[in-house]
Please model this.
Amino acid sequence: MSDERLDPELPRAVALAWGVAAHPQRGPKRELSIERIVEAAVAIADAEGLGAVSMSRVAASLGFTTMSLYRYVTSKDDLILLMQEGAITPPVPDEAAPRSWREGVTAWVLALRAAYREHPWLVDIPISGAPITPNSLLLVDWFLREVRELPLSDGEKMSTLLLLTSYARATSAQERDLRVAAAAAADPGDVTGESAFAALVELVTPERFPDLSPLLAAGAYVAEPGTHPGETDDDFSFGLLRILDGIEHHVERVAAGARPEASAPAPPSPVIALPRDPKVREAAKARREAEKALREAQKREREAIKHALERERAAREKGARG
Model:
């Protein structure tokens, strides 16, 4: 009986990603490998986009025939799945590092967005089902670690992951598309809206557009002069903070409903002036202080996210200059 490992009940590309697929019995004279093929395909996609990737193009870049590749990767779809797996390598932080769930989830979203920025073609890969490859599941595991202590059901945690993944993907696709459009345009103002600003001010009248007209006249509808699409993270940061606020609000509602006192009946006697009770006043004071502390913490979080995004942008600009 042959001792060659057989593929488990997984698609060929998924088994390759897990390292449990049988290797080809015969290969080209000069050794090829899945790793070399995927690296070459990723390099082509990074330079020219996903549409430039083909089995023949990858084979030529490695100096092999197309048939040589098929001994390792059976189809272009399998190759793209392996490219996606290779392009997303989650920088999972040390679990011992103390941080709030909002800080942890923010780091997770920024890591996902960084991968989309490094490999913009990732957003062009259609979503075909639940992630089942190692790196994609590491991302899921990392996220679940960050929300481990939240009083949410398993389904709610996965829905939260889907919401944030969709946000990171959509904003990254928009940023990429605007950058491509700006690079192709003869005048960047055609993309930002600057070129049409003067005409729009005349056409967008208060009678027809009562709410848009004053905003346009104030210059808030178009990008600031000299600003290129995708250069500012203000919109992304604002959206992410609002999503986190919504999740936090839901978490607080769930936590309140889970506490025994939340379902307890109201005090039966209206005669007792509870607001004058020292313990009630003390509890109300503590609540106000906690709310104030929460607002201050949220402000610090917004500033931290803003600074993190600025550092990320500065690093990209430094890398581009280097």
Observations:
- The chain has 13 helices and no strands.
- Residues 201 and 217 are 6 Å apart (CA to CA).
